[in-house]
Amino acid sequence: MVEKQPDDEAKSALQCYLLSQPLQSLSLRHYFLLNVFDLQPFELRPAAISTIDNAFESFFNRYSLLCKLAANKSREVETITHWHLVEIITLLKRRDSTRGDVVVTVMQDLVVAHSQSLARTLVDLAAGVWLMLSISKYPGDISYDEPIDWNDNEILGTDHNISQQEGLISKTLSHQYNSTDLVKLPQSFTAAHLEQIGGIKVIWTSNLADHLLLKDDDTKLMLFHHVSILYLHKQSPTSLLPKVLVDETIRSVSLLIPPVLGTPNPWFQQQRKKYLLIDAQAGVCDRLNSSERRIEKFTYWRDRIVLLKRTFDEKEPGNLEQLWWDDRRKTQWFTFWVAVLVFVVTVFFGVVQSVAGVVQAWASVRSLKARD
């Protein structure tokens, strides 16, 4: 009898586990990712990826949530297995296939049973899980994510060797930019300072299309955090995400969350305590040097970075705590706090002198009464 190999067991498990059953086993998670990204086992832990989150906890929490939300849209989703989704992702990797083409193919599956609505839901779910995009709006979704419209006659990626048609990815995440403003991106331009000085709250997002987007009258910043998955896209030979986009997104995360000696900075550590589902890898990207922080190094995210920098520069501290953190103009910051220190010291010694004078007068009066 032939002994069953671990990969065979993992595949059998994925063929049995329904989408309503979260993947908890580390071996199943790794096998799922190996097939989604077409990687070899050793590529799942490249040197660039920290072992801090080798279970890809943040990704699989999002995956589980999307499966539940998809079931709200179509109850038949609960009859689909994780391996079905892997097979649909394989279909999506064909660059010349439109959404409609993939839907028609998925409808041939006996489990789908020619249900067009179920097939559409599954295709959108598979694309969203794989590419980290919010392809469809699901009932019960309370996130800030803005869903992307994907038409039936539209392909996902763009391959000019096959077609001149622009795909959903290049239309949504364009490398074309409008801003010609060569803003400076100093070391003080960080997510921590955006919150502490500018009062711009960071909202962590799993939707790559919302990365660096300002919302709610420029009071909230959407920040994509699934850096571990970006590294897998970078390694994957079949990813439809442009490698330049993936690399630039990782650098933009490092720009706003610079590590300290290879470890997450204190602000990010506090964020991880508050929001446990943040990808830990987002806090340990390679730190950018001064050349890498130049705005010319960014194309896909340039417009959003420029707008964010302008918004940050226009923000003025509204209280003493924000004044303390606001060291953007170091000379003014130093002069202000020296003046505050001098004022406090002067008031302190003034109060001390006044108290000493009162005590001395009281002692003199008491001494005169004692003589009488």
Description:
This protein has 372 residues and is mainly α. The chain is 48% helix and 3% strand. A three-stranded mixed beta sheet has the order 1-3-2. Helix 4 crosses helix 6. The chain starts with 5 loop residues before the first helix and ends with a helix.
Strand order of the largest sheet: 1-3-2
- Gyration radius (Cα, Å) is 28 Å
- Could you describe the largest sheet, including whether it forms a barrel? 3 strands, mixed
* Number of alpha- plus pi-helical segments: 14
* DSSP E strands, number: 3
Indicate the proportion of strand residues.
Answer: under 5%
Average pLDDT over all residues: 84
The oligomeric state is single chain
N to C succession of SSEs? HHHHHHHHEEEHHHHHH
Give the N-terminus to C-terminus distance in angstroms.
118 Å
**Percent of residues in helical segments?**
40-55%
Low-confidence runs (pLDDT<50, min 5 residues)? Answer: 1-5, 46-52
Overall form: elongated
Q: How does the helix and strand content classify structurally?
A: mainly alpha
Annotate the secondary structure layout:
Blueprint: H1 6-16, H2 26-37, H3 57-73, H4 82-92, H5 99-107, H6 116-131, H7 168-172, H8 191-196, E1 201-205, E2 214-215, E3 220-224, H9 227-235, H10 243-256, H11 266-274, H12 302-314, H13 320-325, H14 330-371
Parallel strand pairs: 1-3
Antiparallel strand pairs: 2-3
